[in-house]
Amino acid sequence: MLSSNVDNHEEIAEMIRYLGGDISEGGELDLEATHLLCSAPGRSEKMLGSVAAGKWVLHPAYVARSRAAGKFLPEEEYEWGNPIATCLPSLSGAEKTLGRAAHRWRSSRASGNPGPFAGMTALLHVPAARKRLLTRLLEAGEGTSVDDEPPYTDDSISVCFADIKRYPLSDRDAAWFISKRIPVCPPVLLSSYLTDDVPPNPVEHCLPDYRPK
Question: Boundaries of each BRCT domain copy (predicted)?
């Protein structure tokens, strides 16, 4: 996969094909892809999904250097967040955080450890387009998205991620979540499962109006 911040898409794609690789052309996260090339780590769907899935997240220079060598080189020196990748451009604080997360989860998943959302059964109470995006993110990190519609009744839900401002909960559903002691959290919390060394406790991040009395 190529991030939108990568220049010379066609040239890079040609080099990858020359070396025997293939390109995922779509604009969305491709769970079948093995690598993501990006000029800097950013909070795109492809980036966050690649982190969750444990894919290689590399600087585009990897392809040019591999082309010069006539073969795909070892990735580590071109991997964002990898301590041995000392020749990559400097990053901002937020970019560094994402880069470290990419390296950490790639190493963890390669060692056979579960994904960042493993064991999570989440309800996504958000507009449809964002729901599709977040569902792919959950799946990339071995989580489950519940296919349920209001009024909600699925007792398997362990957490609800809700965009309350754009997509308010009904009084009935709000009362149901509170009675079931299911935390209702802002969707941005999903990023913290990727970047934080200790996974967040959704109960501690439950929106105030939905905390059990």
Answer: 1-80
DSSP 129: H
Domain pair 9-110 / 121-210, same fold = yes
- What's the pLDDT score for residue 66? 98
**How far, in Å, are 154, 155, 191 from residue 43 at the CA level?**
31, 32, 9
Site of tokens 């060394």:
197
Residue ranges per structural domain of the chain: 9-110, 121-210
**The CATH fold of domain 121-210:** Rossmann fold (3.40.50)
CATH superfamily of 9-110: BRCT domain (3.40.50.10190)
Cβ contact 52:141 at 8 Å: yes
Q: What is the pLDDT of residues 73-85, one digit of tens each?
A: 999 999 999 999 9
Q: Which position has the token pair 């400097």?
A: 90
Global pTM reads 0.94
SS3 readout for 61-115: HHHHHHHHHCCCCCCHHHECCCCCCCCCCCCCHHHHHHHHHHHHHHHHHHCCCCC
